[in-house]
Design brief:
56 residues; mainly alpha
């Protein structure tokens, strides 16, 4: 019983997350990365359009 108490105490002191919390954050990060990629592409297209318009 002392081992279990010691392990529980040690684990509670660590900054751990549950698998569900990890998976949720990973999904949020994936969506954020996808949005960032889309915005980077949009900016590149806008910059190209600006260059074409200013070259005329």
């Amino acid at each position: 019983m002392q081992v279990r108490t010691a392990m529980t105490s040690a684990l509670q002191k660590m900054n751990l997350v549950t698998r569900e919390e990890f998976d949720t954050q990973q999904a949020v990060l994936t969506r954020s990365r996808e949005k960032l990629d889309a915005l980077e592409q949009q900016i590149a297209e806008l910059e190209e359009t600006i260059q074409q318009l200013t070259a005329k």
